Amino acid sequence: MENYVNISNIDNPMTDKTTIFYKLTLFIMGFCSVFYTNTKLSLYIRLFFLIIILFYLFYDIFIISKKVAINGFYWYIIFFLFVFLSLIYTSNDSSYMVVIERMIPGVFIGMAVFQSKNRGLNISSFFAGVVIGMSVSAFIVILSNIGSLGQGRIGSDFYGSDVEFGALCCYAIFSSFILIFIYKKQIFLWIILSMFLYFGVLISGTRKSTIQPILVLFLIIFFKNLRSPKILLVILFSAIAIIGAYYLFVNNEILYNFVGKRIESMFNSFINNNEDGSIIERKLMVELAMDNMGNRFILGHGIYSFAYDFAYVFGREVYSHNNYTEILYCYGIVGFIIFYWKYLYAFLHLKNILKKTSNYVLASIFVVLFIGDSYSITFLQPLAILYISLFFENLLKQNDFLRF
User: Where does the chain cross the membrane (predicted)?
Assistant: First the structure.
């Protein structure tokens, strides 16, 4: 039987008005979290987001609960502080703020959500805000590009990068999975919105974001039936579904133009070593990072140093597109241990994964994000960091804090 937090155990029992305030504020934070990188609304959203979240934290910490309750999220705060301190020795003396600006929302989001859940509050409204906010954003992007759908990758006009747009659609789908499989309310709505968001992923043309929701859904079903005699059938039908989806992507002209061509090239790179320009460039990034750490492998070269040091190679400042090498090159072995030590601890406790529904749902997201570290910079994605932190806390403490 799952153990839920009893609202009567909260230090400061809330009135109905206070409950509405918490839920509404968490919803607004979730809604804003997918807009903060929007190039057209960025400044306004960031200011509004910071005002809302700082007021929320002040109100809860100093007026309602009168204590800081962000246990379980300190690991990322410590990593952020280490990244910030690397300003002291970084080789990049001009454009490092791009990293700080992306990590600060992750710190604030994590603090607000953990402050809420550690006091036994229902945090489902945050996930609902993420899904609805990204659905609104995707609708605007599609509407503004309606005449060019199927002719190229979509999303860069609103997010500066189609990859960013696709990734945020993907992370919003993860929130919909949490709402569907854990909270189990308004399931039909979240299914419809997740399907719409997956269309947003497709038009972004992002390979990673196209594959990740499918893998998460497969793992949720797999973990749920792991001890069931039906597990072999689940694996068989899932394999057939994945093969069928691949066949559809590469044989349907519209889907092929959206993302099928890029998925096909990715599989061809594994099978025939026939790589497209994007994969070749990413491999070069990893090689450069690993080959040039030199005698600074302990603390690294400092914040955003890979992008700065190798801008002459790629013609622009760009991340290494690999979380492991980005951390190793910029923040060294020390930064790598600070960020990944909790991953190891979590893997050692995976035996607890089937004890609660929330465990295997969050574990599925965690595993896919961990694999995705080979192709993206996870530590700069606030929602990804939140999902990972919730998984760590839920698995290790065996406390089903996601609802009461």
Answer: 20-37, 43-61, 73-90, 96-114, 126-145, 165-182, 187-204, 210-226, 231-249, 297-315, 327-348, 360-388
